[in-house]
């Protein structure tokens, strides 16, 4: 079976709110990125976000408690060197997103995502159902993230669950709690959650997903740390709102 075309991938992204692209990163490229990420994790190269900072379910209560220095994210991946910059601006990512944005130039956000996500055993937290756009401030909501699996990802080690089609739904504020997580106690929400899927990713696979697509992740029940590299993009005609965190650092156009 031949690989799907860019047009087919974009059609799937538009229809279900996410699309998997298999073997997107070459083995040498993935291994180099993985080695660099492991180095920065081992040496605690700043900037870093710790699980204790967010207090999601399963996280340590503070940085001083047991497991308190468990890393959640290595922040500012784009600023961690040429290898990360090359990945974030990869021409194949640009080509797919340019097609999705109907010819408009994709722009890498250096504020949102732009990180190595880690999921640790024992102290890695559970992430509830949410839309990424909840804390972002842009002139429109058509942003897409690119998530690279640096190792194998599956349900038991904290892989992402997605709810197909949820990016096109008009959820009211009552569907979310005070932290803007999708409420699992509401019958109408439960109907959506019942549709969730957890696609397994092989090392080097990528998932593109819309910022309004509901997604979640369990804790890591294995003995190994899971690592992923994620960046977010918007078309050039969509801009961060002045004075917000989204506008706190310039984006990088993928021309």
Automatic annotation (TrEMBL):
SUPFAM superfamilies: Clavaminate synthase-like. Its cofactor is Fe(2+). GO terms for molecular function: 2-oxoglutarate-dependent dioxygenase activity; iron ion binding. Gene3D superfamilies: q2cbj1_9rhob like domain. The keyword Oxidoreductase applies. Pfam families: PhyH. The keyword Membrane does not apply. Keywords: Dioxygenase, Oxidoreductase. This is Phytanoyl-CoA dioxygenase. It comes from Bordetella genomosp. 5.
């Amino acid at each position: 079976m031949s690989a799907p075309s860019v047009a087919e991938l974009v059609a799937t992204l538009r229809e279900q709110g996410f699309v998997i692209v298999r073997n997107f990163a070459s083995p040498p490229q993935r291994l180099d990125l993985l080695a660099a990420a492991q180095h920065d994790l081992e040496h605690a190269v700043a900037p870093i976000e710790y699980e204790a900072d967010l207090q999601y379910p399963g996280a340590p209560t503070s940085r001083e408690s047991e497991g308190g220095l468990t890393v959640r994210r290595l922040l500012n991946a784009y600023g961690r060197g040429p290898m990360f910059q090359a990945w974030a601006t990869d021409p194949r990512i640009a080509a797919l997103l340019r097609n999705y944005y109907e010819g408009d130039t994709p722009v890498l956000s250096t504020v949102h995502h732009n990180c190595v996500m880690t999921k640790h055993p024992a102290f890695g937290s559970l992430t509830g159902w949410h839309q990424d756009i909840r804390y972002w401030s842009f002139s429109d909501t058509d942003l897409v993230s690119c998530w690279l699996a640096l190792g194998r990802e599956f349900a038991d080690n904290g892989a992402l669950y997605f709810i197909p089609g949820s990016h096109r739904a008009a959820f009211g504020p009552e569907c979310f709690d005070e932290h803007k997580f999708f409420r699992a106690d509401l019958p109408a929400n439960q109907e959506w959650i019942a549709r969730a899927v957890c696609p397994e990713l092989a090392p080097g696979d990528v998932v593109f997903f819309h910022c309004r697509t509901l997604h979640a992740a369990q804790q890591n029940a294995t003995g190994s740390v899971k690592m992923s590299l994620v960046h977010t993009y918007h078309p050039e005609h969509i801009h961060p709102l002045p004075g917000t965190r989204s506008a706190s650092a310039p984006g990088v156009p993928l021309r």
